[in-house]
Specification:
The structure holds two protein chains of two kinds.
Chain A: H1 3-31, H2 35-56, H3 62-68, H4 96-150, H5 153-229, H6 235-333, H7 336-367, H8 375-382, E1 398-400
Helix pairs in contact in A: 1-2, 1-8, 3-4, 4-6, 4-7, 5-6
Chain B: E1 4-8, H1 12-23, E2 28-32, H2 35-43, E3 50-53, H3 62-69, E4 80-84, H4 89-98, E5 102-105, H5 110-120
Parallel strand pairs in B: 1-2, 1-3, 3-4, 4-5
Helix pairs in contact in B: 2-3
Classes of the chains: A mainly alpha, B alpha/beta.
Chain lengths: 401, 124
């Protein structure tokens, strides 16, 4: 068999398990939820396919293979903070196949290093995201507490101030009202007493007039008797006695009229006072209305205060729930990093196994021995790895035994 | 006094994510970044109502941890959940044989995890 044909068969044997395995992983990951991993796996499959195609070309050397794979010139990679990948001295040789195998070995070393680097960077990024989320969550919690305590304070203070003002006003109104009421009542009582005293005094005077009239009448009667005894000489005196009698009757009648007038006057004054009291009651009613209105305003303010507090609490609770939910979802979603890490570690393991297989192939080639069996290696690449696709209906994601 | 749950994972991100979810329902969380550390805490007298462990973790994997944790006084009947990216049935069977109470495939969201914890720890 020509050397090129042998090499072709060997390369086919080398590449086929990778193509199969990585294609399977690619399809599997593409069915899953992590697009980044699917793209990475698909890229790895494309890389291996490209590698196979390049190796099929008989005249390619290692450098051109690297270039054709888009891995860049050796001097442009790796970054300064990552250890450079050396061409394996174990595989470096004179034949083209040995050179290609050495390049493949280098490729897998580099793939392992890059995969590991992605794992580390993803983990660091995820940890940073988680830390930031926790900080955000804590800060939001503190902010909500602060808002709960302070945002309503301005309004509460305003309402309390108004309430306090209304209360002071009501107290003043009530004090003024009571003072006026006491003064008025005292004045009224005093005036009524004065009128009663004056009326009693006048009534006493009227009684005196009555007594004088009575005595005068008696005197006139005696004078008439004496006048009749005197006969003709007493006729003139009888006229005088008669006039005195009439005078006493008129005095008595006048005294009666005065007494009646005084009684009427007292009744009139009492009635007037009653009217005044009625008016006063009306005024008091108005004052009480004002107080009632003020109290109603106060009550309304208190209701607004309670309502405002209730609204604030409701809003804070709603916002708290609204913010907490996406943060919780985000902290759950960040678990993707661990899944990617484990998938990449699985790929690293496959790469390491491939590298070992390459060493075995190279050894066998150098020593003219038959190639090692591919079955163990194929079993490794076909074995199930971590994180099967999430949309596989046959997989139970939560199972209690 | 709130229930304590021990979470074991070699991923700091996973530990933080699960801790964050469980703290929301008032659970006290203890963390361990390896099977050895978790076992040491349990053997040192840490009393937990539940343990949630990853499968693939360095030297001591989750199944081995469960096997050893079941021998620690007070852990014979405590619920132990495996939280892993693996989903193969043979691994599940192995975990069940070692004493696992359940199997959860990563990722798990907050509502599902809290529901599960409430179901397995009365009073949470």
């Amino acid at each position: 068999m020509p050397a090129f044909a042998e090499r072709h068969i060997q390369i086919e044997r080398l590449a086929t398990p990778f193509v199969v395995a990585i294609t399977v992983v690619s399809i599997g990951l593409a069915m899953g939820q992590t697009a980044t991993s699917a793209i990475a796996a698909a890229a790895a499959a494309a890389l291996v396919l490209a590698l196979r195609d390049v190796l099929m070309r008989p005249e390619e050397d290692a450098s051109s293979v690297m270039h054709a794979l888009g891995l860049g010139e050796p001097e442009t990679v790796p970054p300064s903070d990552i250890a450079p990948v050396e061409i394996s001295p174990l595989l470096a040789g004179d034949t083209d196949l040995e050179a290609h195998l050495a390049t493949l070995d280098t490729l897998f070393s580099r793939a392992t290093r890059d995969t590991s680097s992605v794992t580390d960077e993803a983990e660091a990024a995820a940890f940073s995201i988680m830390s930031s989320l926790k900080t955000i969550e804590t800060t939001i919690g503190e902010l909500i507490c602060f808002l709960e305590a302070s945002s309503s304070n301005g309004r509460v203070l305003e309402i309390v101030e108004r309430t306090d003002h209304e209360l002071s006003r009501n107290k003043t109104l009530i004090s003024e009202f009571l003072a006026r009421r006491d003064d008025d009542m005292e004045d009224c009582t005093r005036r009524l007493d004065d009128i009663e005293t004056m009326t009693d005094r006048l009534s006493g005077a009227v009684e005196g007039i009555h007594a004088i009239a009575k005595q005068t009448h008696l005197l006139a009667l005696n004078a008439a008797i004496e006048a009749s005894r005197a006969g003709t000489f007493g006729a003139g005196f009888e006229v005088v006695a008669h006039e005195v009698k009439r005078l006493s009757e008129r005095s008595s009648n006048t005294a009666t009229e005065i007494n009646d007038g005084l009684l009427t006057l007292r009744d009139t004054i009492r009635e007037n006072l009653n009217v005044l009291v009625s008016q006063r009651i009306e005024a008091e009613r108005k004052e009480l209305d004002r107080i009632a209105t003020s109290i109603a305003t106060l009550t309304e303010d208190m209701e607004r205060l309670v309502s405002h507090q209730r609204d604030t609490l409701g809003k804070v609770q709603m916002e708290s729930g609204r913010i907490a939910e996406p943060v919780l979802t985000l902290t759950s979603s960040i678990q993707f990093q661990d899944i990617i890490r484990q998938r990449l570690e699985h790929l690293e393991m496959i790469f390491a196994r491939a590298q070992g297989d390459l060493v075995d192939i190279s050894s066998a080639q150098a020593q003219g021995h038959p190639l090692p069996p591919v079955a163990p290696f194929r079993d490794v690449v076909l074995s199930e790895g971590p994180a099967a696709p999430r949309n596989n209906a046959e997989i139970v994601n939560i199972e209690l035994f | 006094m709130s229930a304590t749950v021990l979470i074991v994972d070699d991923s700091a991100t996973m530990l933080m994510s699960i801790e964050n979810i469980l703290q929301k329902i008032g659970v006290n969380v203890e963390k361990a970044s390896s099977g050895e550390q978790a076992l040491s805490k349990l053997q040192g007298g840490l009393k937990v109502k539940m343990m949630i462990t990853d499968l693939n973790m360095g030297a001591m994997n989750g199944i081995e941890l469960i096997r050893l944790a079941r021998k620690v006084p007070g852990m014979a009947f405590a619920p132990i959940l495996m939280l892993t990216t693996e989903s193969q049935q043979d691994k599940r069977n192995e975990a069940k044989a070692a004493g696992a109470t359940g199997w959860i495939v990563k990722p798990i969201d907050g509502p599902n995890l809290t529901k599960l914890v409430k179901q397995l720890i009365p009073g949470v």
